[in-house]
Amino acid sequence: SNLNSDEPIEIFADEGIEWHKNKNKYVAIGNAKAISGSLSLKSDRIEAFYKDKENDGMNIKEVRAKKNVVVEDNKMKIVGGDYAEYKTQKDYFLIQGKKIILTSESNILKSREKLEFWRSKNIAIATGKAEAKKNSDNKEDRFTVLADKLVWYLKETEKKTTVKKMLGFKNVSIKTNNEVAFSDKAIYNNETEICKLFGNVR
């Protein structure tokens, strides 16, 4: 469910919510939460910016979160953000931090700089010493991919989010059971389990 659809954004906080009328924003402090449908954004401090609508009050267009940012949606969770921005029209998150971790079922995506997430398009991009991991009880199925930039294409089914395809750019290394491959670019298809490597493969 996109936030620009019928799901309103509700905001909660332990220490209260300030309304800055002249700046068209709300500030929620202390265990702050913004919730819309299945999506929740939590952090120490949340600022929500709105546009006045003539007929029905207001329309939140951007949410900014500071410190201890956690985003959750349909079994997908992002932790470790120091700062996050959520643009409601685009259904887009930008999360910054030194230890960002996105977990979706047995798949993990890490970044030491920033993570972008287009929610309605189901695309996540980790930039800055990015790492993707697949955990499995079966050793054969486990792998780790390191790259300067990793792009995930996610697939959403009934209350579950899985990784469909993954792209790695620059300084890519892929570790599987006992092997390591290096390349400039890699494409991994989770459904066919085929990995293609491009440029300077070694």
What would you say about this model in short?
By secondary structure, this protein is mostly beta strands. The protein is built from no helices and 15 strands.
Rounded average pLDDT: 88
Helical segment tally? 0
Count of distinct strands:
15
Separation, N- and C-terminal Cα atoms: 43 Å
The dominant shape is elongated
Please mark out the parts with pLDDT under 50 across 5 or more consecutive residues, or reply none.
none
Order of helices and strands: EEEEEEEEEEEEEEE
- Describe the biggest sheet? 6 strands, antiparallel, barrel
In quaternary terms, these chains amount to single chain
Query: Structural class of the secondary structure composition?
Result: mainly beta
